[in-house]
Amino acid sequence: MAIDDRTEVARQVAAMRATSLPVLTGRRGLLAGAGAAAAAGALLHPKLALAKGSENLPPNVPDWTRSLGAGVSDKPYGVPSPFEKNVVRRNVEWLTATEQSSVNFTPLPELDGIITPSGLCFERHHAGVPEIDPAQHRLVIHGMVARPLIFTMDDLVRFPSTSRILFLECPANGGMEWKGAQMDGCQFTHGMVHCCEWTGVTLSTLLAEAGVLPEAKWMLAEGADGAAMTRSIPLAKALDDCIVCYAQNGERIRPEQGYPVRLMVPGWEGNVNVKWLRRLKLGDRPWHHREETSKYTDLMPDGKARQFTFTMDANSVVTAPCPEKPLKFGKGFYEIRGLAWSGHGRIKRVDVSVDGGNNWQTAVLQEPVLSKALTRFRLPWTWDGAPALVQSRAIDETGYVQPTIEQLRAARGVNSIYHKNAQQTWRVNPDGTVNNVQIL
Amino acid sequence: MSRSCSRWGHIHLTLRSGPPGRVSKGGRSHPVCSPSFETAAARPPQDEVGTWVIRLAGAVLISACVAIQATAHAQSPVPYGIGRPATAEQIKGWDIDVRGDDGRGLPPGKGTVKQGEELYLSQCASCHGEFGEGNGRWPELMGGKGTLTSDDPRKTVGSYWPYAPTLFDYIRRTMPFTAPQSLSDDEVYAITAYILHLNDLLPADATLDAAALVAVRLPNRDGFIEGDPRPDTASPPVPCMTNCRTTPPKVTSDLAERLGVTPSRKPKD
Fold first, then answer.
1. How far is B156 from chain A (nearest CA, A)?
2. How many helices (H) and strands (E) does chain B have?
3. Which of A227, A418, B65, B105 is the Cys-Cys partner for A127 at CB 3.0 to 4.6 Å?
């Protein structure tokens, strides 16, 4: 979330809870039965309700079969079908004071595979999206280097290129759920993550070009947006696998993702992947800037805060069923689908439970299974119509097992905001609807 | 760090056709007829570690603007020779970072709490409140002491930030919100002084400059743990697969569907 005024959010939610509690008692159970399940599905999905017409169904020949369609270049840049207009990023208005310093969420339940379409990647800006003319954009490397350098975009593209499929997750993903289940949608509990193919020049190549001096230990990355956002990154990571990227999913990076050039820091919290990258400065210590002291630090119960907790630990979520994807066909076969990822490397295994963690089955991992990328998992499931508590548990190649929310709370309390990677529980109700709950 | 291509630095005399107006060579390429590059003149870049890269650049203009560049490298460590030296003047315009813990990078200049109050009221108060209390969901800038262990921690300059120079850095790089980098250094000092004053960290008659700012010790300076103690949850080598629970699962939080705070979803009544 990385939201500027989280305490206000907490207050607001507490107030909402206080005021909504009395109204919440006992209306459940009215929507029982298979017919009602279908009705509930239709309620949740207005699209289904709109698709009532049968004039294009067999034996009728559809309109689109008996007419001429649009020609090539009708849309020089293609866009999704109008029937997919529900598949969009969404923000939570009450979360932030302004949309320029805010966040929205990837519609994870609507997506298949592991690649997030560029236009659906969640956005997090601190001062809005700058409109940058690439001809007037420069990247400067200076500080503790032998040769301070300035690069044009042409320069950056001219270097040997590399491509890698990487997830990027805001460390506040799920941050609204520390104190309890709050957001009744997978898009909002887990949507601050995306996964794209990123192309650029390795940062180590650029740093070699500038000649990093031996005393340099840290690097400051700075954006060209109105926030001129900065983060300190240890030199070891900078030299390891970071990429200065100009392309995303095969085309130039979208403005909201850092056009014309951004830093990708594989497996590390989203905020250090500085967008609209304009400056890299080498130094011997971290800078302790606002985004690495006041924000993006994890407050523990004793009042101390963890700083520079960069890596995103293994996480996973079931994207079907979930609140947005109810079991709308009654009893019978469903494929449980979900996503897992780890900032430490590859996902080794994902287990799925439908009984609140009493019994687990190992899901199938869909190839490709890539290091520091989203990994798709799936498991066939025959729903017997009974209430179910669906969970997933990711295990990465380091042997790290995704914890329960209680484990995380025991270790960190509830005020750390960031790095909430607990197992998610979806409650499947008898009517097939699904809600976000937390269990003990 | 990949050095696999460093041999390219020793190819001195290969003439290749490069982008329009440029000749790509083993050394840094120099624009010969494109006015769009920062510097039109070729110059020998100086290696600050003591190695001189001597470049004899001779440009020959033929019809299509081609230059021949003879480059001599004395143990050149430059792998590709792409990009240009960043001049001190170029760097100066962008080199705005101030290091939090020692104030390195703080510019000359100064401002008083009193000047800061006036500036704050016109530039900052509409969002942050007249006394730094924060309007609506905009961040509060003062108070919050003693709340970090409470259910409602309030993270402000006075209660949470570890280093005072970070405040100067942040204001200078991105405030005011709608007109970032529009304040003079003196103005930033003044506003910084006023915010510190709001947190009882500077007296009302104080003047703030670089030395005075570094001398301000914020109350939560020792409140941070550098280094990452994770993993901090147990990972069983063989995670349990069957009959793992000793008690049936108990739902501890199920308000999400009824809170009504989820966009695109209507709460159940």
1. 8
2. 7, 9
3. A227
